[in-house]
What we know:
This protein has 206 residues and is α+β, with helices and mostly antiparallel strands. Helices cover 21% and strands 27% of the residues. Strands 1, 2, 3, 4, 5, 6, 7 and 8 form an eight-stranded mixed beta sheet that branches. The protein is globular. 31% of the residues are buried.
Amino acid sequence: MRLEQAIYTSSKTRRGEGYHVVARSAGITSEDVTALNRWCPSHAVLGSDTNAETMNFHPLADGGYALSRTTHGGKEFSGRGGLQVVTIVLLLKPRHLAGYDNNPFRLARVAQSLGHLRWSPGFSERLPLVELPDVERAEEDLFSDDDFPNVHGILHRLKSRQRVACISPSLGAEIVEGTSRRLPVPKRLDVSFTTGLKWSKQRPFA
């Protein structure tokens, strides 16, 4: 399958300067760009750890989804200090996730293993499509209920359509994925998430 992709970061391009969608593949519409410019994170959201990263997943107005990875790039373009924040986004339809049991983390792992969702400063403003396998073999569930003693409380809140925040110094992604795996496959796409971004009105994670 072929997926549209975009890069959101701080840079100077012919479309503008500062934080905006600086590169995209041909099928990404102006509506997509507007949504990503509103949603994607900007300066100082990852703290000072140069290796910090977060995986994010949320719905789009057209019925699709955005799966993104946010990391640090180089120095901040504007010269105000700190590190540049980079978000690389894959745009997905439900059919793209079906071959991965509706598990965005599985799709992200395959994408990263093939060299995608990774920042390269020498990007072109016109990006190619991302090619991934349509179906990925099932993975063993490495998460037991003993690993996450509060998982059933989290599931109850999610099923009640409450927002949930989990605080962990190092296991954010594991907690999110371990919880997602315990949801029925058709319900997994109903839950948007981030493994590290701060909440904002532009990012109303369910």
